[in-house]
Design a protein that fits this description.
The protein contains 15 helices and seven strands. The protein has a five-stranded antiparallel β-sheet. A two-stranded antiparallel ribbon has the order 6-7. It is globular, with a radius of gyration of 19 Å. The N and C termini lie far apart (about 45 Å). This is DNA-3-methyladenine glycosylase family protein. InterPro entries: Alkylbase_DNA_Glycosylase/TA (IPR051912), DNA_glycosylase (IPR011257). Keywords: DNA damage, DNA repair.
Length: about 300
Amino acid sequence: MPTRTWVPPGPYDLHRTLGVLGRGPGDPAFAVRGGEIWRASRTPPGPGTLRLAARPADGAVAAEAWGPGADWLLERLPALLGADDAPEAFTPRHRLVHAAHRRHRGVRLARTGLVLESLIPSVLEQKVTSDEAYRAWRLLLRRHGEPAPGPWDRLRVMPDPRGWALIPSWEWHRAGIDAKRSDTIVRAARAARRLEEAAAMDLADATRRLCALPGIGPWTAAETLQRVLGAPDALTLGDLHLPKIIGYALTGRRGTTDAEMLDLLAPYEGQRHRAARLILLSGTVPPRRAPRFPVGDIARL
């Protein structure tokens, strides 16, 4: 069982840094257990499990890994934990952002280096509620994934590209996934090698590579590359809620559009995703005026 430690250069928040990699409660590939973070991934050498724990005594993060992908995961541990990120390049321009930046100095942008791992759940989240997408991810991994290496049998590793491509149509339907999203995932699985190359590209080239695949647009590309590259400017456009939250937090007004959000975040050019994330961490959201959107279930049709 190989191990590695990484010592952050300053304040560090392990759980908020890596929390964005989890896909809702009960994610079979990501879990928090006793203050430790467990993550199961399909790496180029094969499945791997990573256990991470913060060590308050010396400020380090300690990691253990299992499986064929263990060495790959540990080699890239600093990047995963945000060593390539440069939060010092960020300058707050609004009072709320300044307060959130001061309160969350330990949050860095993680870089996984694995495209399909973030792309597929992002496709599942297209045009549906988060609860629907999380349920679909859980069902697919439990039924078509494989047990993750290591001591915790609760974790699952997602299918390999061939495994995704071979999931039958009725299994997608059973998980509540329409044909448009399942077709996109199958196309992505068949183009896995080309898509994974985006992990070594800059944000603009990686976005073009992902968006060249039918069914993947700017929203899905941004949600994917925020995690794959740790890209500070990968702002999500086309989201139902994000512009409204940012508009309300920065101006107190409701109904902000994407175009207006871009104007508000223009002072953060190059760091717009980081600014948006800090605004979300502030917890300032417009009061709800209508009931929560009902969760659909096409598996019952």
